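[job 4471] stage=fold_predict status=RUNNING
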Amino acid sequence: MAASNEKIKASRRSTPLWVISLFVSLSEATLGVAVTQTAGAIQVTLTIFVVLFPVLIAAGFFAVLWWKPYAFYPPSEYGGHVNVEQYIQAIRGIAGPIVKETKDVQDEGLETFGNPDRLTLLFKVKSSTWIRSTKAMQAYGGCVVQFSTKSLMPDGSWNIAEAATYVPGVRIQNEPEGEGKFLAPLNNDTR
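[job 4471] inference complete, writing structure tokens
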């Protein structure tokens, strides 16, 4: 019973869309009555306004929907596990800085154990809706390589896929051009 009451309360929350529809409905009803109570030039002017007003509201609605779609959803629509600010930044296409080492993380509550930077970032690609990175750690006779892909799902949550493997006979080396790193053979032979 309590669960059904919560669903009813959740469905009655006022959203920006509900407020806009209520405003347009009340305005149109009031102006419709006003048009029937007037005559002459005032009636023509009010009739033109009653016809154009919803068109202007619709144009404004679609403009906001195109440039700021998140404005029509209350934070409860994003789900409890989604940070609203990060979701809005993802919709806007704003990607944060690429984190190469733990010292680059902008979080005052960051806690570490051991050396979190043993895995060296080989390369990373980041957009507003997905992140892909490859890291490696030097091991005896080769490297352990980790691949990570993180994708933004339609509900605002992140889907993460990772894999790791051991690659024998390679070492981590700096890119000759650029700032990335790559795996090179342990010996100098580059066949």
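[job 4471] summary: The mean pLDDT is 78.
[job 4471] exit 0
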